[in-house]
Amino acid sequence: MKKGTVKRAVLSTILCNTLVWYDYILFGSLASTIGDLFFPQEDKYLSLMSSFSVFAVGFCMRPFGASIFGHIGDKYGRRTALVISIIAMSVPIGFMAVVPTYASVGVLAPILLVICRLVQGFSLGGEAGNATFLIEHSKANQAGLFGSFEVLSAVLGSVFALAVKMASFYFTGDEFKVWGWRIPFIVGFVIGIISIFIRVRAGESPAYTEHASKESGVVKSPVKHLFKYYRRPLILAICIDCIENCSFHIFMVFFISFVGNFSLSSAVNPQIGEFIEIVNVMISGVMTVGFGALSDVIGRKKVMGGASIALFFLAIPVFWLLSQESFWYVGLGYFLFAIPFAATLGPSSAAMSELFPTKVRYTGFGIARNISSALGGGMAPVLCTWLMQITGWKVAPGFCVMFWALIACIALSRITPKDIHRDWVKQ
């Protein structure tokens, strides 16, 4: 395969996936502001839970989007599915820049917000195929490295979202809650237009091209074929990915609200908390690629298994550190979580892709990732807030991390060499 083809595939995937996660993390990081504007409540817990609930609604649509786009990706090509999904993703981003608030249209505002999130969640279900598209451009012994680029782009999107939000807050000041919060969504819409152009120019996956050229290559109904013949790898993929999704959304979304609402005094203001997060997200992004490459050498199970064990034992101490009114304690808590978080993230795309053959890889990966996103990711901020409310313990969210870490360890131990499929084109 020509190097230019691989470079275009990597570039288009990174840029488009950066947009996807820019938008999703932006909404989560603006949870407090959106809660005040669309769900005015006297109780900050209720307002925040309402905002996080809308965030979770989008994730509930992701498995449906994964099924539809998975069918398109496995039957008509990865590129076709990815072009349609990025278009569908860009429209709601632009709508968020103009959607009226509760003060303007009353109850219609949260209804419009929910509809917007449903469309975004559905289209994001198709974006999971980014990983298979990338990995099918890799050499067999570089799947972990290439897969980590897809995850790295999610980290880049998250950093960019936080940076744009902070810049908007800085330049608009007191007007941020009036109109300044819309600026990051305008930026996202512009990036969306650019991403559409780039993705249209990207080529098709070589593995899919070779597979589709065979007489019995493309199955009539990828979703039906998946559930009939590949239920075991589907369940394993969901279980090992839940800890990745849980840790991702707690690290990228919940930590900011936790630090800003429940643990900080004048010693550490929310903006400094966001700065701490950006620094640690950037560090974790670099480590993600390193752990992805490491998994190509020592194996996915060892890297992800070790990370899951570390998350199990570090979850409670990390939340204790984050609850302290100290810059250094909060920074240490972030860093201790960032290391195993990156280790679950880096190899995850390759580990899941290898559980499915080419004929159902896009569908299987997409459905598994999006079900795990709904179970372990989208519900995590809501569940963490609820656990704190009913227990009164600031460390209670750690139990959510511990649960999914245990599930991941069990699932990883059940994967055998017979479960691995590395049938993409050898280069």
From TrEMBL:
Keywords: Cell membrane, Membrane, Symport, Transmembrane, Transmembrane helix, Transport. The chain crosses the membrane at residues 45-69, 81-99, 105-124, 145-167, 179-198, 234-258, 278-298, 303-321, 327-346, 367-389, 395-413. Residues 9-420 form the Major facilitator superfamily (MFS) profile domain. GO terms for cellular component: plasma membrane. It is found in: Cell membrane. One of its GO terms (molecular function) is symporter activity. Pfam families: Sugar_tr. PANTHER family: ALPHA-KETOGLUTARATE PERMEASE. This is Sugar (And other) transporter family protein. The lineage of its organism: Bacteria, Pseudomonadati, Pseudomonadota, Alphaproteobacteria, Rickettsiales.
